Amino acid sequence: MKKVIALLIAMLLMVCGIASVSAEVSPTASVVDTKITIDAVVVPDNAGTATPSIDEPFEYVVGSDGTVTLIASSNEGFKFVRWEFITGEFDIIEGSLTSSTIVILPKGDSNIRAYAHFADEDASIPATEPDSKPAVKPDPGTQSPTTGDVTPVFFVLGAVVLMLGVAVIALKKKAC
Known about the structure:
Elements lengths: L1 H20 L13 E9 L4 E4 L6 E4 L6 E7 L3 E10 L1 E6 L6 E7 L4 E9 L30 H25 L1
Parallel strand pairs: 1-8
Antiparallel strand pairs: 1-3, 2-4, 4-7, 5-8, 6-7
């Protein structure tokens, strides 16, 4: 009887050792914040100003859930026409591509470069507006991390229960 109990305890310890080795690393490792640069270029050069400018870019920390406001101001004799984004990923939170002030929410890890297009005040500009539907602001709620497949753990635990059942039946038959 003592040998059977010792054998069961030894098997249980081995199974526990296997289960702890098969555990996966949690994906909650610390994430290093990525900084991206956001700037705007005025087209043509002397038509106005754009903030943040190429000379004074805005540094944005990806993941900080902040927005960036881009502002275009025209010089005398010019009028603002539209924004054109050359690089970067973002959502438009307020305004549109034809608004002189636009609020964006950067996403991803690419730098954002915008062109603020201006035209002569007397020039006719088509009344069409590019697709500039404001995006829905993402939910900043937290998500529970996943730790991978737990099937191996359940397999091992099932094997332990099966071995214990076989051991109990063997002991009862020996006692009878």
